[in-house]
Structure to design on (882 residues):
């Protein structure tokens, strides 16, 4: 059976050479994202802005957006937004916080119910008062900041500090571009969007860690190779996996966009953008950062010497090729396996 | 690579079987589930997945103690206490008792009198709040040299009162919601001054808000006669009519003396809906006394400072029962009866957040989520199959178990499945195979580098494992933070994401490895099939 391969085999793309293009490019995009955020702003949903969303379904026939708008404006609720979506019988009304505190919000819903209740069913009503929306903004911001700090700490323990810095810069980049995406598309930004952003942060780090892991491995294996070349080699090695995983996640996300319904569409669309950006940044932003941060400055002699021992250890792993097959659930101690296992482990975890 | 201890193999098989058994009841239709339940002994009621309010429909309402109202009530009470103390000590004041935003002030000209009342006033803090032993004082009492004494409620006092109000409210709200006859409402305290009410599967969310939003303070007071002392009269709004009506400040009978209230119909006259009530002994006595002394006058029935009606007292009512009429609809009479039976809230509560989903929309969301999950899983399964062939089959089997594990985890944790939760599961379907991809690609790579099949398999699993752990820990951290900071549906997302990450380690790594080992044992391949 001929199997499908999306990623070409044994690629040797000189990714690091692109850093002179990718850095200014990403810097520009990030700046645009910040500018969009500042000047165009976000389409904050009621979770963060406060206000009311009412989802209506016409009791018979199609929803009449025009009539609803006129009706809504007649109620004097400030800016009222009427939207049709999906099913022609459905429409949503959205309006901002009413002056007069929490009691006024409920009174406004009552007025809408009185005006449209005869022709429409209120399928969903969400009212968020001013204090609650402020708290949601706080906890949302705190969540994003905390997760970045937590992951930075983890990476710092697990990898060299250059890796942690690189990963965080890449993650910040993804975060900025996602915010810019929300601003330019004016997708509604609500608590689910925070979930999307944190998932993107998670995915972005996931991507970054996979690349960094390989770089770390190769760094110990090929001491004599210039950093740029070694990083290129590592990225090319994990490229098939990167493409595969991005594709499977995209497939799942497209299913969510197409069939998941109105409520989680903005989540899914933002995730798709995030996966795209995260994949890009793990290759073009995080990895070159290692070169700028001066990942390697060891003594060349020492490196060469270690290289030699690494090769010996590698040979030990290679020696396993002539392992004979053993029964699936055979007794573990009756074979000379433990000894081999140790040698393999040593080759892998030898300190640089 | 090929060796697996028997117990490990059995453990994985047992876990899979257990997961499928745990999940199975949730997949049954409601009627089949009931049938299954009736056949099993009662101690073995199979748990099912709890659907979030966004999926089964229902209301999520956050109520908050109205601080301004709470403070003004406290100030009013304080004023009464101060007046009582001054009267008891027979202390003369110049100008009446003034109220400030947070307390009261009086001017006691005579220093000797001041010395007499100050200790008494300080003692008020004990009766104000008995629970605050050793804590910060709920009341501040200070006297300035010019003779002005100020008694103010401190922040600690307000917090304490609102905390107590929340506690009492929870009881009252539970009685009210239970009267609606819904299943499994959840009523919880949130912070110091909030109550979260979640009622699933409600057909009519309006009624819920109707009965949650009312304080239900019922009072019976006489309507003031013309020429009565204005300081004893208060103008109140009327529910049924325009304009205000003057009633006496003195409350004759209070709602707390009611023992029962039932909706009914007026037997004598119009046949309109009314609420019939019965007093306890104290209420019955007071009611009898007032109605005996005031035949011919109007007697106002006041709910939350609004006059419902003010019928004329035709004859003394001594039987201890009565009737409230006020041009109600049947539903209004019903709700009022519920409110009166459950008792009044200790403070005014405002709705600060409301999320209501109708049952129809919930079902639509379930359908949409299911469709997205099937399509997403289908696409991923096909893709893995065409990319990795027989290894793809292993990955897909592991994926199936992975999904079963997530659902089993949700059932066992009693965690709710929300729409974002479904999105999380679909997302983990895409990401669960990531571990397989990492391993398979590594195997290919090792094989291309010239290793034998077995050595490549071995190296693929061992080398990819560290990466899998590292990359999943980062994702898990993000999910954990989401869980602790998110609320409602977003929490559901965090739970399914976290579960997905945990189970992927078992399914994608251990299970796949086992399957490949078995396959290798029997197929004896000469060439790597990927």
């Amino acid at each position: 059976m001929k199997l499908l391969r999306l990623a070409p085999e044994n690629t040797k793309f000189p990714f690091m050479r692109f850093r002179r293009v990718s850095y200014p490019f990403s810097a520009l995009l990030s700046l645009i994202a910040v500018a969009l955020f500042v000047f165009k702003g976000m389409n904050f949903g009621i979770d963060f802005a406060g206000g009311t969303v009412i989802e209506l379904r016409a009791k018979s026939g199609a929803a009449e957006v025009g009539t609803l708008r006129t009706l809504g404006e007649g109620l004097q609720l400030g800016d009222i937004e009427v939207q049709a979506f999906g099913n022609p019988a459905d429409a949503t009304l959205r309006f901002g916080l009413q002056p007069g505190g929490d009691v006024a919000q409920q009174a406004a819903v009552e007025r809408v119910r009185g005006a449209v209740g005869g022709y429409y069913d209120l399928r969903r009503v969400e009212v968020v008062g001013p204090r609650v929306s402020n708290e949601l903004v706080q906890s949302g911001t705190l969540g994003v900041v905390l997760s970045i700090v937590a992951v930075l700490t983890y990476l710092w323990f697990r990898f060299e500090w250059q890796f942690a810095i690189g990963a965080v810069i890449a993650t910040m980049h993804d975060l900025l571009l996602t915010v810019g995406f929300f601003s330019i598309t004016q997708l509604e930004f609500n608590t689910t969007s925070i979930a999307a952003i944190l998932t993107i942060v998670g995915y972005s780090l996931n991507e970054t860690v996979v690349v960094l892991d390989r770089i770390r491995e190769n760094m110990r294996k090929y001491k004599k190779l210039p950093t740029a070349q070694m990083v290129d080699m590592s990225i090319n090695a994990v490229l098939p996996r990167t493409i595969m995983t991005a594709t499977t996640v995209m497939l799942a996300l497209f299913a969510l966009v197409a069939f998941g319904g109105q409520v989680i569409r903005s989540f899914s669309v933002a995730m798709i953008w995030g996966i795209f950006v995260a994949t890009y940044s793990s290759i073009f932003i995080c990895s070159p950062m290692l070169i700028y941060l001066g990942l390697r400055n060891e003594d060349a002699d020492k490196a060469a010497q270690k290289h030699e021992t690494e090769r010996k250890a590698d040979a030990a792993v290679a020696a396993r090729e002539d392992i004979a097959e053993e029964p699936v659930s055979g007794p573990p101690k009756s074979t000379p396996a433990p000894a081999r296992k140790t040698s393999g482990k040593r080759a892998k975890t030898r300190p640089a | 690579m090929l060796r697996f201890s028997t117990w490990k193999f059995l453990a994985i098989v047992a876990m899979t079987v257990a997961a499928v058994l745990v999940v199975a009841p949730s997949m049954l239709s409601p009627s089949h589930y009931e049938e299954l339940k009736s056949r099993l002994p009662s101690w073995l009621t199979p748990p099912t997945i709890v659907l979030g309010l966004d999926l089964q429909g229902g209301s999520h309402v956050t109520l908050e103690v109205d601080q301004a109202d709470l403070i003004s009530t406290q100030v009013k009470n304080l004023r009464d206490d101060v007046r009582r103390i001054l009267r008891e000590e027979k202390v003369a004041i110049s100008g009446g008792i003034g109220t400030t935003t947070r307390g009261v002030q009086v001017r006691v000209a005579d220093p000797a009198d001041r010395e007499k009342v100050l200790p008494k006033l300080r003692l008020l803090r004990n009766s104000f709040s008995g629970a605050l032993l050793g804590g910060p004082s709920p009341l501040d009492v200070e006297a300035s040299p010019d003779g002005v004494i100020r008694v103010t409620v401190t922040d600690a006092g307000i917090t304490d009162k609102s905390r107590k109000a929340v506690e009492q409210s929870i009881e009252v709200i539970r009685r009210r919601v239970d009267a609606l006859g819904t299943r499994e409402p959840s009523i919880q305290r949130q912070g110091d001054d909030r109550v979260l009410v979640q009622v699933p599967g409600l057909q009519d969310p309006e009624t819920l808000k109707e009965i949650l939003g009312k304080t239900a303070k019922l009072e019976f007071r006489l309507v003031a006669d013309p020429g009565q002392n204005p300081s004893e009269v208060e103008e109140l709004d009327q529910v049924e009519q325009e304009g205000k009506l003057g009633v006496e400040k003195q409350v004759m009978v209070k709602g707390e003396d009611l023992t029962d209230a039932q909706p009914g119909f007026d037997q004598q006259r119009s046949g309109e809906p009314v609420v019939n009530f019965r007093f306890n002994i104290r209420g019955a006595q007071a009611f009898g006394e007032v109605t005996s002394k005031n035949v011919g006058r109007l007697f106002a029935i006041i709910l939350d400072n609004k006059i419902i009606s003010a019928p004329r007292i035709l004859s003394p009512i001594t039987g201890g029962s009565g009737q409230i009429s006020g041009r109600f609809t049947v539903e209004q009479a019903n709700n009022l009866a519920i409110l009166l039976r459950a008792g009044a809230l200790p403070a005014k509560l405002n709705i600060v957040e409301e999320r209501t989903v109708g049952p129809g929309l919930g079902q639509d969301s379930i359908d949409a989520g299911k469709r997205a999950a099937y399509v997403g899983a289908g696409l991923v399964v096909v893709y893995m199959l065409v990319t990795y062939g027989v290894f793809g089959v292993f990955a897909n089997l592991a994926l199936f178990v992975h999904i079963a594990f997530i659902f089993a985890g949700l059932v066992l944790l009693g965690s709710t499945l929300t729409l974002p939760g479904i999105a999380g599961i679909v997302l983990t379907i895409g990401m669960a195979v990531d571990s397989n991809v990492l391993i398979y690609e590594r195997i290919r790579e090792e094989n291309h580098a010239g290793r034998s099949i077995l050595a490549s398999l071995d190296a693929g699993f061992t080398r990819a494992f560290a990466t899998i752990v590292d990359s999943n820990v980062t994702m898990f951290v993000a999910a954990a933070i989401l869980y602790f900071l998110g609320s409602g549906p977003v929490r559901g997302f965090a739970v399914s994401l976290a579960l997905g990450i945990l189970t992927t380690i078992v399914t994608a790594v251990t299970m796949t490895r086992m399957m490949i080992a078995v396959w290798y044992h029997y197929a004896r391949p000469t060439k790597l099939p990927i």
About this structure: The first helix of chain A runs from residue 19 to 40. Residues 40 and 242 of chain A are 34 Å apart (CA to CA). Chain A touches chain B through 98 residues (CB under 8 Å).
